[in-house]
Each structure stands twice: as C-alpha cells, then as structure tokens.
Amino acid sequence: MTQEEAALDLVVRQRIRGLRLAKGWSLDALASRCALSASSLSRIETGHRRIALDQLVPLARALGTTLDQLVEPEGDDDVVIRPEPRHEPGATTWLLSRERATQGVVVAKMRLTPERVVGDPRVHPGREWFTVLSGVVRLTLGSRSVVVRAGEAAQFSTMTPHVVQAHGGPAELLTIFDHDGERAHLDERAPGT
Q: What pTM was estimated for this model as a whole?
C-alpha cells in the first residue's frame, strides 16, 4: 500500500467511525444495519482489517452517505475559498461557498448601499435566510416592509415577492440561498450574462 493509499484508508476509517458516533450508534447498531459483525466493524475502524469494496457500499448506505463521499480524498484545495468580489451599482457580493455547492445551498456575503438599483421583486421556489452583520436592511415581502438590524436574522418563503435593500446607509449581510435563490439573485449578475 502506497503512502497516499494508507492516508486515504485512514480517512475512510475515521469517517466511518465519525459518522457512526455522530448518529449515536454502537458498533452493534451499525452492524445490524449493514450486515457486518460488530467485531468486523471494530477491526475496520481500528485498522486491524482491510476494508473491501463490497463492505463500503452497505456501510455508506447504512451511514446515510454515498460511496463517493466516504472515499473522497482529502486536499487543502477544497478547504480554503478565496472569494472574488462581484460588483454591480450599490452591491458587492462574495461567494463564500463553492459555486453549485453539492449541499444545495450557496453562502454569500453582500455589501449593499442605498444606491443599489432594485428591479422588480423576485419570486422563486424555496426559502432564503440572511443575518445582518452591520447596518440596517429593509426587507420588502409583498406589501409589507420589515426592518432587520445588525445582529438580527430573517428567514422567509421566496414564493412571496421580495426585495432586500440597505436602509439609511451601507449594510453588510451574510446570506444562504438554495439553488433557486442563487439563480434568481446571483446568476443574473455574473459576468457575460
């Protein structure tokens, strides 16, 4: 076994044990879900037994993950995100998660100023969430207006027509979009669109 293979083997063992413990399961509980004995699982987790592919598939299924996620190699390039600002009049956005994140959400930091040109209210399937880091934000939901101050958060159905604006000065917020929200709020500002 090469050094890289040994490192990946260790990571897979740690993931199996970590996922089992996160679910609060004993070795016996996991064993009953994946047709392996508790002693075999113990030897797999401790490195006293090699993991076979035919064992990984039921383990992944029992632990509620995919085989790909279980055996994905580690690397620093997938840890650090170096966001590039996207500018438009009155708004700057930094994507803080990988674009097209597999978890189904995109995290972004936004700096809004009162000069932001706001078009028609947006409507799309899903939900959005944001917290105001500094300043004050005015959230228009249909016919009502809600003021959200620094330290407060808002969560709402995006099937209601909505607009987020700085109120009385610049504001910074941290927001989480699902894929529909990303498409509605971020994609139209991407270069070349």
A: 0.59
Tell me which residue has tokens 């995100």: 81
73 secondary structure, DSSP code: P
DSSP code per residue over 83-135:
PPPEEETTEEEEE-S-TT-TTSEEEEEEEE-TT----SPB--SSEEEEEEEES
What is the C-alpha R_g of the chain? 23
State the CB neighbour count (10 A cutoff) for residue 68. 9
Per-residue pLDDT tens, the chain, 193 aa: give them: 788 788 888 889 999 999 999 999 999 999 999 989 999 999 999 999 888 888 999 999 999 998 888 888 766 666 778 889 999 899 999 988 876 555 577 889 999 999 887 778 888 888 889 999 999 999 999 999 999 999 999 999 989 999 999 999 999 999 987 655 555 555 554 443 3
Ordered by where they begin, the domains of the chain are 3-77 (1.10.260.40), 86-189 (2.60.120.10)
